[in-house]
Specification:
Elements (H helix, E strand, L loop, with lengths): L2 H14 L2 H21 L3 H10 L8 H10 L6 H5 L4 H12 L6 H8 L10 H12 L9 H8 L3 H18 L6 H17 L1
The structure holds fe (iii) ion (2 copies).
The site of one fe (iii) ion has 6 residues, from loops.
Length: 195
């Protein structure tokens, strides 16, 4: 992946996404590049993963399910109840199939960007966090604090975001993907080990 790939993928996302989602995507891409610089990850990989993380977000559910079935991508129980979650799985698939990204860590960062998972890699954490803190976001009162901490301690930022998301999901009727809870529990335990 190099700078030409970034320019190419950026143009493709501009065509693929609606205006609001495209702005969000650019925000995630450069926030991820900055976090990468700060935490010792390659900023080009981070930018590519950020650009592609929501590439399937503007598809309708039918199209996402069709792509999964056609390419034998498994659909979990929570994904079939809430096919919007499939945008991560379909996005990870399209990263290679349509946009030529072979790097498995970029694909994993896209695959786990909605739920996280225990033992996330550096790039996975960066994309998960960048998705939540990019400049267009404004849903959480804790955002200013989380943004600051993201440039100091990724695991701490991750825990704060997971706890915000779980709290938010508990106050609505939106379903919680069990992986979000598993990820929170894992990083909570990790934090207790080190303190
Ligand atoms: Fe997303
Ligand atoms: Fe996103």
């Amino acid at each position: 992946m190099n700078l030409q790939d970034i320019a190419r993928i950026r143009k493709e996302m501009e065509k693929e996404l609606d205006a609001k989602r495209y702005e969000h995507t650019l925000g995630v891409a450069y926030t991820a590049a900055c976090l990468a610089m700060c935490h010792g990850e390659d900023p080009v990989r981070a930018e590519v993963a950020g650009l592609l993380h929501d590439s399937a977000k503007c598809f309708d559910n039918e199209k996402r399910i069709r792509i999964c079935k056609k390419n034998k991508l498994s659909i979990t129980e929570s994904e079939s109840k809430n096919p919007f979650l499939l945008h991560a799985k379909v996005g990870a698939f399209l990263a290679e199939d349509k946009y030529g990204v072979k790097d498995p860590e970029i694909k994993d960062a896209i695959l786990y960007h909605t739920t996280g998972r225990p033992r996330m890699g550096l790039l996975e954490k960066i994309i998960y966090i960048a998705d939540y803190i990019e400049p267009c976001r404004k849903q959480s009162l804790k955002l200013p604090e989380i943004r600051k901490i993201a440039f100091v301690d990724l695991d701490q930022a991750l825990l704060m975001i997971l706890s915000e998301i779980l709290h938010y999901l508990n106050t609505t009727s939106e379903p919680i993907d069990p992986m979000t809870q598993l990820t929170y529990d894992y990083y909570m335990k990790e934090q207790k080990k080190t303190t």
